[in-house]
TrEMBL record:
The keyword Ribonucleoprotein applies. The gene is rpsU. Pfam families: Ribosomal_S21. GO terms for cellular component: ribonucleoprotein complex; ribosome. Belongs to the bacterial ribosomal protein bS21 family. Residues 47-63 have a biased composition (Basic residues). This is Small ribosomal subunit protein bS21. Residues 32-46 have a biased composition (Basic and acidic residues). It comes from Symmachiella dynata. HAMAP family: Ribosomal_bS21. NCBIfam families: S21p.
Length: 63
């Protein structure tokens, strides 16, 4: 959960900008997009496996 306290003499635009930054850094936006639609467990596992394969391939080429 992201909490933001508006500082003294802080404009609303500055507070909104800080709030957006906090939301982005906390991962709330990413999690919300991920949960927007139902993903079958088999599809999630396939996506994770492909991501791991790409990571392993990149590590092999870097070494």
């Amino acid at each position: 959960m992201v909490k933001l306290r508006v500082r003294d003499k802080e404009s609303i635009q500055d507070a909104v900008r800080r709030f957006r930054k906090l939301v982005e850094h906390s991962g709330v936006k990413k999690e919300m997009r991920r949960r927007e639609y139902y993903e079958k467990p088999s599809d999630a596992a396939r996506r994770a496996r492909r991501r791991a394969e790409r990571r392993a391939k990149m590590n092999r080429t870097m070494s």
